[in-house]
Specification:
By secondary structure, this protein is an all-alpha fold. The protein has one domain. The protein has twelve helices and no strands. The longest helix is centred in the middle third of the chain and has 28 residues. The relative contact order is 0.14.
Length: about 290
């Protein structure tokens, strides 16, 4: 009985590398590299704002300009029900979390291929690079939040007591952002076309998220549509929840938020495992 020889261009099975993913060990290693994330974040912030006249004030630019455009054009051209909230506040509360997500995905997705010099010279958990990009976006968002405080003062408004839900909403959003960024950053290394496609996808996704419109219209959004939208885009109930809790004095839609949390858990765990599976080839492919 003849035994088929392995192909000449393929390694014998005993020499093939199969990485064993050990989540707890990898999390411990990542925690040990937390100082590196801080250093990378400081580097990115210095590079972004060094020798600029406005400095960190540029962190205000995107959300503030988008708020002005939405307030002037969307607020007048489209009949948007803000549930009694000032139009500028309504838009800015939606723009802040969206800007954080979009900035994290845009910079985090290319963080591996833009740090090749470090990847090829220094050993560290590769996920520190997309995580540093997310922390950088978080710092910008935190700075831009000061404008929200000024808007509340200017309009003589106060966040409602139901804003106590915000930490939970923020936790789910950050977890989802980390999961998606890990997935995209690992895939961009192998599929470079994604680098050009992602900006268009992010722009489209903004209009698929209730940033420039209200999600409360029962005539336009049926319960079934809301459920499907929450599965496809977990940011939908999150951004809707920010407005409901901060501006309207209502609790978030808990059923939709539970769906968003479930999808987020799958994205975070799946994204991390996928990243660790693919990272062994980053240095060779990138």
């Amino acid at each position: 009985m003849s035994v088929q020889a392995p192909a000449l261009d393929a390694p014998v099975p005993q020499l093939m590398f199969r990485r064993r993913v050990r989540p707890f060990a990898m999390v411990r290693e990542l925690w040990g590299s937390r100082d590196l994330i801080t250093v990378l974040t400081e580097r990115d912030l210095r590079v972004r704002y060094k020798q600029t006249k406005m400095g960190f004030a540029w962190a205000f630019a995107t959300p503030v300009l988008m708020m002005i455009v939405f307030t002037v054009f969307f607020g007048k051209a489209v009949d948007i029900d803000t549930n009694g909230a000032p139009t500028a506040l309504f838009f800015y509360v939606g723009l802040l979390p969206w800007t954080f997500f979009a900035s994290s995905v845009s910079s985090g997705s290319v963080s591996i291929i833009t740090n090749l010099s470090l990847i090829n010279k220094v050993y560290c958990p590769r996920e520190v690079f997309p995580l540093a990009a997310i922390v950088t976006a978080a710092v910008d968002t935190l700075i831009a939040t000061s404008i929200l405080a000024l808007l509340f003062i200017g309009y003589g408004e106060m966040p409602r007591s139901t804003a106590v839900w915000v930490p939970l909403l923020l936790l789910i959003q950050v977890a989802f952002t980390v999961g998606i960024t890990l997935i995209l950053s690992s895939m961009v290394v192998y599929l470079r076309d994604l680098r050009n496609i992602l900006p268009m996808v992010v722009q489209f996704a903004m209009f698929a998220t209730p940033v420039a419109y209200s999600f409360d219209d029962n005539e336009k959004f049926s319960p079934t549509f809301r459920t499907v939208a929450s599965i496809v885009n977990p940011l939908v109930p999150i951004i809707d929840g920010y407005r409901r809790t901060i501006l309207d004095g209502e609790a978030p839609r808990l059923g939709l938020l539970a769906i968003s949390a479930g999808v987020t858990v799958v994205s975070l765990i799946g994204g991390y495992l996928l990243f660790k599976r693919l990272e062994t080839g980053f240095a060779d492919v990138a």
